[in-house]
Amino acid sequence: MPLIELETFIEAEIGICFDLARSIDLHTISTVKTNEKAIEGRTKGLIELGEFVTWEATHFGVRQKLTSKITAFQKPFHFRDEQLKGIFKFIKHEHYFEQKTNGVLMKDVFHYEAPFGFIGRIVEKLILTNYLKKFLLERNQIIKQYAETDLHKSLLKIKTRN
Questions:
Q1: What is the signed CA dihedral for 85, 32, 21, 123, rounded to 10 degrees?
Q2: CB neighbours (10 Å) of residue 18?
Q3: Which of 18, 88, 137, 159 has the most C-beta neighbours closer than 10 Å?
């Protein structure tokens, strides 16, 4: 089963990073290239433990749906989303947040398995792992951009402390 592990350092508070990573609205912004839209379940705001979202998106020229559910949640350090329905045989995405002296280390651990048996394994190695890694890296850069600037304030409705 393929595994993608990423680390992104963000100069922001841990709570902001955690909330941006689970924001349906930020996910929509970060996936504009694939025209992702939340169409069922939690479709706006911050997804919570036990909630699900169904995304509709275009990948590789094919319109598809994927439903994931938050199956673990320890604010502001960790949450997990897992595919309930979709084209993949399996997806489990762990999100970890670790407070550092001058920011947050955000870690993604993304396990997945393509459908279609042996052919799926070939597609994973030749195309899919790199595609998904790039997808996650782009998403993480948007999270970083929003967290390190005032952009997060309107999205998360956070008031500035005096």
A1: 50
A2: 24
A3: 18
CA distance 18 to 80: 12
Q: What is the pTM of this model?
A: 0.93
Mention every residue, 6+ apart, whose C-beta is less than 8 A from residue 125: none
Place of tokens 């993604």: 108
Residue carrying the six token digits 């938050």: 70
The domain defined by 3-156 carries CATH number 3.30.530.20 = yes
Residue 26 is inside which H or E element, if any?
Answer: helix 24-30
Residues 16-45 pLDDT 10s: 999 999 999 999 999 988 889 999 999 999
Instruction: Say whether 153 sits in a helix, a strand or coil.
Output: helix
The tens digit of pLDDT for each residue in 69-96 reads 999 999 999 999 999 999 999 999 999 9
